[in-house]
Amino acid sequence: MNTFLIDAGNTRIKWALAASDAPLGVWLAYGAVMHADAAQLTEAWRGAVAAHGAAGKVIVANVAGADRRALLESMLEMAGVAQPSGIDWFASVAERAGVRNGYRTHGQLGCDRFAAAIGAHALVPGQALIVANCGTATTIDAVTADGAFLGGMILPGLGLMATSLARNTAQLPQIAQGGKLPSGFADNTDDAILSGLLAAQAGAIERACALHGAQACLVSGGAAQYIAPALGAHVPYRLVDNIVLTGLHAAARSE
Ligand SMILES: Nc1ncnc2c1ncn2[C@@H]1O[C@H](COP(=O)(O)OP(=O)(O)O)[C@@H](O)[C@H]1O
Ligand SMILES: CC(C)(COP(=O)(O)O)[C@@H](O)C(=O)NCCC(=O)O
Ligand SMILES: [K+]
């Protein structure tokens, strides 16, 4: 039976259809849309299950609020993927798929972070890990070799940092995404902003790796491609596509 997975973050909705026996993170179908384009999902989902077969299990990690949850529920039903009663709304619990939740109040931990920790531990078992998920927010979490989620750091994501500078200053522009990596001390405004933002993001990840004695650092999320190259050469990092979906896949396979 196939498994249908959704990661609804604050910027984009990512989804995948996986065969039950597929290796972690290997999808039959995959897509990602901005919230404004969510209406496109119904057709895409209908097409995916028509092409690859129905899903026996549907797991959704949603940190985008109750309205999004209601919308996802109705679109899943309209697309013929799942009835509302058949959806597993992924939640941060005390323990799942070999990862123990170290938050004082288990449910307070963003369910995407718990899923990412599960994904990281499943991809790299037996190593002390830092999981950096660079989305709307950047979250940087520590997982021990035996699967204890210790907790982490939350900071504004790369896009949010850039926008908040542009919005709250008279003279600073909104910088474009991408471009070449600026050197530490930049000689123009755009590069100086990008240099500062990347130093903040990469610096936090490096600090977390040092604090935790990380043997591996998994970097994921929409802004990962910009942040990872700014990490120091000593950081044992690896880019991972969709660590949250990978974690949901690992959770589904573990049951
Ligand atoms: N094509 C893109 N569309 C939107 N955001 C992008 C894109 N490419 C990179 N980004 C960056 O990725 C972030 C969104 O990443 P994502 O992992 O989807 O976030 P979330 O899980 O919070 O929805 C944006 O804040 C932006 O910095
Ligand atoms: C920190 C987050 C906003 C990250 O969301 P994202 O950037 O993936 O959209 C989300 O995981 C969340 O709402 N967490 C709840 C608070 C916590 O994890 O402590
Ligand atoms: K995130």
UniProtKB/TrEMBL annotation:
Lineage: Bacteria, Pseudomonadati, Pseudomonadota, Betaproteobacteria, Burkholderiales
Residues reported in the UniProt entry to bind substrate: Y103, G110, C111, D112, R113, T189
Main location: cytoplasm
Assigned protein family: Belongs to the type III pantothenate kinase family.
Pathway of action: Cofactor biosynthesis; coenzyme A biosynthesis; CoA from (R)-pantothenate: step 1/5
Example GO BP: coenzyme A biosynthetic process
Enzyme class: transferase
Functional description taken from the UniProt entry: Catalyzes the phosphorylation of pantothenate (Pan), the first step in CoA biosynthesis.
Gene3D superfamilies noted in UniProt: 3.30.420.40
Protein name: Type III pantothenate kinase
Catalysed conversion reaction: (R)-pantothenate + ATP = (R)-4'-phosphopantothenate + ADP + H(+)
Active site per the UniProt annotation: D112
Keywords: ATP-binding, Coenzyme A biosynthesis, Cytoplasm, Kinase, Nucleotide-binding, Potassium, Transferase
